[in-house]
Amino acid sequence: MTPPLPRRRRRRLAGLATATLVALAGGILAVTAGGSADAATIGAGSYTESLPAGAKLPSGCGSMSTNPRQYLTANAPAGPVPTNDWWSSLLFKKGDDCNFSQPLFAGPAAYRPVASGLGLSYQTDPAISGSGTGLGEFHYPYAQHVVVGVAGLNASQALVDGWSDWTVTPSWSDGARTMKATIGHGLPMSYYQITGGDALLTITGPPTAWQNSGNRIGFSIGGHDFVAYGPAGSTWTVSGSTIRSSLAGKGYFSVAVLPTLSSASTADKVTLADTFGQYAHNHVTGTRLAYTYNQAAGTVNTTYSFTTTAREGSGSGTVIALYPHQWRYLTGASPLSRTYVSPRGAMKIVTGTSFSTSMKYTGVLPEIPAVADSSGADLTQITTFLNNELTNPADFRGDDTYWTGKGLGRAARIAEIADQLNLTSVRDSALTVIRTRLTDWFTASSGKTSRLFYYDKNWGTLIGYPASYASDEDLNDHHFHYGYFVAAAATLAKFDPAWAATGRYGGMVDLLIPDANNYDRSDTRFPYLRDFDIYEGHDWASGHGAFGAGNNQESSSEGQNFANALIQWGQATGNSAVRDAGIWLHTTQAAAINEYWFDVRNENFPSTWGHNYSAIVWGSGGAYATWFSGEHAMVVGINMLPMTGGQLYLGDYPQSVRDTYAELVRNNGGEPTVWRDMLWQYLALGDPDAALAKFRANSSYTSEEGESKAHTFHWIRNLAALGQVDTGVTANHPLAKVFAKNGAKTYVASNITNAALTVTFSDGRMVNVPAGKTVATGAVSWSGGNATGGGVGTTPPTTPPTTPPTTPPACTTGPLLSQGKPATSSSVEAGYPANLAVDGDTATRWSSAFADPQWLQVDLGSAQALGRVELNWEAAYGKTYQIQTSTNGTTWTTAATVTDGAAGVRTVAVSGTARYVRVNGTERGTPYGYSLWEFKVYGACTGTTQPPATTPPTTSPTTPPPTTTAPSGTAWAPGTAYAVGAVVTYNGVRYRCLQAHTSLAGWEPPNVPALWATA
User: Fold this and answer.
1) Separation of alpha carbons 231 and 250, rounded Å
2) Could you say which of 557, 627, 648, 847 would form a disulfide bridge with 931 (CB–CB 3.0 to 4.6 Å)?
3) pTM for the structure as a whole
4) Residue of 137, 225, 477, 533 marked catalytic
5) Catalytic site residue 558?
6) Is 419 a catalytic residue?
7) Which residue out of 558, 595, 874, 934 is catalytically annotated?
8) At 563, phi and psi to the nearest 5?
């Protein structure tokens, strides 16, 4: 929805010739101004609860501006009304239907209230417009098959009687007859309660009844199969195009659409009707989301629950249809063999009262690390780019909430990069702009006419004035606009934690967040998760959703910018609830975006559409088009901006990146001529070398309005060094990411707090990150950054704690024992002797003969308690090798075995006592020899900087001996400091400590193999 220039306004889909589809998508949009107001304070900040003079409120039919509850019944839940949902046009009535609503695309069915009841549609054939190389859309449009109602019902309007996380209950009354229906995402059944007449199903054309037995009738219309289930004792009669039942006077029934094919036999249909019939009278009366972030495992676990009420019998559960982003990550259940067709792709079916998913959270970063542009000619170039921004880092293009946000986002990127490179004048200039502009917006002083926020109690919303793109009248895009504010505040909080404190201006940031997506159900100021469709897994942009194609979302990447902002802000301020909400939003939406915007597996879009990318997702389909331009570069680029460390999910499927860029070039008739920076940065996630070549060949382009050349070069150049994102490895820290290039991994972790931490990756790699630093290690190494923020700066858990850890380990590493000590090797390639691997110089190396096996050993001079070995491999690395120890240089014990070696730095935990330590290479990773820049042996960590040496045993051990031996009855306990070699028991099993640490609750020995091994 983002326009390329401030003067442009969001409008209907540009360039589409098909009038029918323009009518489907058409809506009402507006832009407004501001005025003066009185202030309500939060810390040092303030907002107003008095509408500024001349400012506009949300608007719609009747008295919507001041009475958003005018289309609710008395039964509707109290509190702020939901907006930005799949069913919002039923409540937030606007445009040409002030009585009922626009079509409601629930999936698998679609609905539309009318005077006589609820229309029902199930479409399996897409309507496609445009061409495969030009603008175009696909829709599964609403085409009414059945109207479910009460005989004689003629209501003047449909109201909202209730809602839950992904269901809604519309209500009809004409004074003599009433009906309530419950419909929802993932529900093939709709549930009805009626009074004043018979249940009446009006079919679009005469139905074909394939079963009419007792209280159940199955019928076909338009190639689709439906079943109506009445109460026990009831019957159905067919007359022409109507089906009718008295319901045996009980007043409840349900209607299901079946997942049958047109070729299905009657027996097949009856079997499905029997399966569904088990749940027909368990009416769904509520739905609820629950999620957890398992920090130790790097996973996000989500449970979707359905509350059912048995209208007869004592059953529970229902039939549930899952979207692709749900069933791909389903746990603990197996779907049925049948699937539904939907605008999002195939929906698979489970039954019960809930289902759960588990997704990997593979991390975000404050910014790509400066592994390549921190030296040489690249440093010169990036320094020039950054210095060019010294006087105008934000380059604001407008004064409304959206364009202010874009400028703040631009300045935040510059501040992050300049800090990495120690260009403090540029960093501080950007931070000053952020601080000044945010403080201005967060202050609603008396008489102020713009740059302030207004809280409307009736709507439960916070609107910034000047507003833009109908963020006031339609409640559009709050997550887009406010995500930039929160993200910039998170960057500022790293360097000015006092400003970010709740008692200063952090409270205003904490007010913006729940307006867009309130993660706290107990916060009654705002609706729960306003902009986020819990079941479809992504945001909706329009507050009212009053379009023939349902609601829509264009810039999914700006939605992710909001989610990432919550992660960064929560981490910087120590607010784990905000952080975890951001992680759930980000992880869930990343999966949905890759499914529904980029269709990375080529399974969800209609096969005849011709595009592998959708710029706008509609309730009924998708569009290769934008609200503001027909330019192909903008059609594609709108789902990439702003490019930040939170957008790395776009690179989860590198081939899809390359395919989407290739489609852009094909459709455009050549390389893009606008928004090249956004598209090159996107290409860098799939082919970074090609992206860098394009930048170097034409660096005189015009930047996208929220982008800078400094950031574009930094992003592309460093990805060219790091490679592509590695989705196979997670970390126990939210701000961590793994990259791989030619099979060699680089591990990146950012510590934006004021205390050191150790990050553990799921493949066993451990990275020590000093306070305020970002560290890259592995294939490439770098460390930088100067953050001084607060937050939680302790070592992350390796199993999920019940509360955040508060006690850091006594120390994170023992002393370096090997540097400068005598070293020998099995062989030497001319000019690269063994001593060069222990000289402390990463520019010199040992290299062996081109054969297996080979070894290099170091004499520590005396027996030492060992903690870990660090190997810095050159490109000629060891694929399989052992770390061995000895007390006499003759008899060797294998302390650790590595079978997945790679170039770069690798840390291997060892224990026991030894004088000699060697790496014994058994399989080379290349045709060359073994080549080590550095071979470092570290002593055990005991809580001091230098652990005492221990006396070696008199005989050569066959296994690493413990430095201490605890009685077999010494039980493991949290809050206890353990030295390397300490032995404990847990649940009757003996464990030996591998790394000195102070144990925390949740670090039980069987849960943390990095710390304990069975003794």
Assistant:
1) 7
2) 847
3) 0.79
4) 477
5) yes
6) no
7) 558
8) -60, -45
